[in-house]
Amino acid sequence: MPLALLALALVAFGIGTTEFATMGLLPQIADGVGVSVPHAGNIVSAYALGVVVGAPLLTGIGARIAHKQLLLLLSALFVIGNIASALAPGFGWLFAARFLAGLPHGALFGVGAVVASRLVAPDRAGRAVSRMFLGLTIANIVGVPAGTALGQQLGWRWAYCAVAVIGLIALAALAAFVPHQPRGNVAGIRHELRAMGNRQVALGLAVAVVGFGGFFAVYSYLVPILTHLTGLADSSTTWVLALYGVGMTLGTLIAGPLTDRALRPTLYGGLALLGATLVTFYFTVHSIVPALLTLVVMGAMGALVTTPVQMLLMAKAKDAPTMAAASNHSAFNLANAGGAWLGGLAISAGWGWASPALVGAALAAGGLGLAFLSGRTDRPGGTSDVITSSQTGSAQETRQVPAP
Question: Which of 254, 250, 258 is nearest to 296 (CA)?
Answer without folding.
Answer: 250
